[in-house]
Design brief:
With about 240 residues, the chain is α+β, with helices and mostly antiparallel strands. Helices cover about 45% and strands about 15% of the residues.
Length: about 240
């Protein structure tokens, strides 16, 4: 079994943490009943890891009727990355099979899920990404990034792309660059030129906002027609 990078295992752990967070209601708290219900919609290693990790978080402050908060989850993720994953990478060169064997059940499941996620990503085109984070960090190679805050930085093609990117959120009224810069947070667009790791296709992505509130569009190189939208940090292929 080849070594696997800690970053990949950490990312798998973060996926499980997101599943736990998503199980909660609008108040951001996750009850045991809510987690039990959410697990019914998960399968395989992802389900096992989410279940085990939730129980780990819950047991750290166990009491009747207790609920898990985002703070609890974030604290547990930070602890697990250090104590359940990083401490076993003795040579700081990725986790070997011998090192993985010494890990806790949580750590081993995180390694298993990391391998599954990497295998799935290897079979995907960039536009098949579930999230914009996956698109830009897993499925493409970054060629350039430009933070655009002024019309003087924009040529004719980029103008059309920026306006089209605005239309992927609530800014459907935007028809000019002035309106575009006025509409988005801090008047800033991030322009990324990337290359699909699998196909070699070149893309231009334009995003604004941050994190789960990221919006924008992805274009094939040289095109003003979006190939995919970025909605709430997720990629939606047309």
């Amino acid at each position: 079994m080849s070594r696997i990078a800690k970053a990949d295992v950490n990312r798998a752990l973060e996926v499980a943490a997101m599943r736990i967070q998503d199980a909660g209601g609008a108040d951001g708290r996750v009850s045991r009943a809510e987690m039990t219900k959410a697990l019914k919609n998960l399968t395989g290693t992802e389900k096992k890891l989410a279940d085990v990790f939730f129980k780990f978080i819950d047991n750290r402050d166990f009491k009747k009727g207790a609920q898990v908060t985002k703070t609890d989850i974030d604290r547990a993720v930070a602890y697990a990355k250090q104590k359940m994953i990083a401490k076993y990478d003795l040579n700081n060169n990725g986790l070997s099979s011998a090192e993985v064997k010494k890990m806790s059940l949580t750590g081993k499941l995180a390694v298993d899920l990391a391998r599954e996620l990497k295998a799935a990503a290897a079979g995907q085109n960039a536009l098949d990404a579930g999230s914009f984070l996956e698109f830009k960090e897993e499925l493409t190679t970054a060629l350039s990034r430009t933070d655009v805050t002024s019309a003087s930085q924009v040529d004719a093609l980029l103008k059309e792309q920026i306006i089209a990117a605005c239309h992927q959120s609530t800014y459907e009224h935007v028809t000019t660059l002035a309106e575009a810069f006025e509409a988005v947070d801090q008047g800033e667009f991030v322009i990324r030129e990337v290359k699909d790791k699998k196909t070699g296709e070149l893309y231009t992505s334009i995003d604004y906002g941050a994190g789960d509130s990221t919006y924008g569009a992805i274009f094939k190189k040289g095109s003003a027609t979006p190939a995919a939208a970025i909605h709430d940090g997720e990629v939606q292929k047309f």
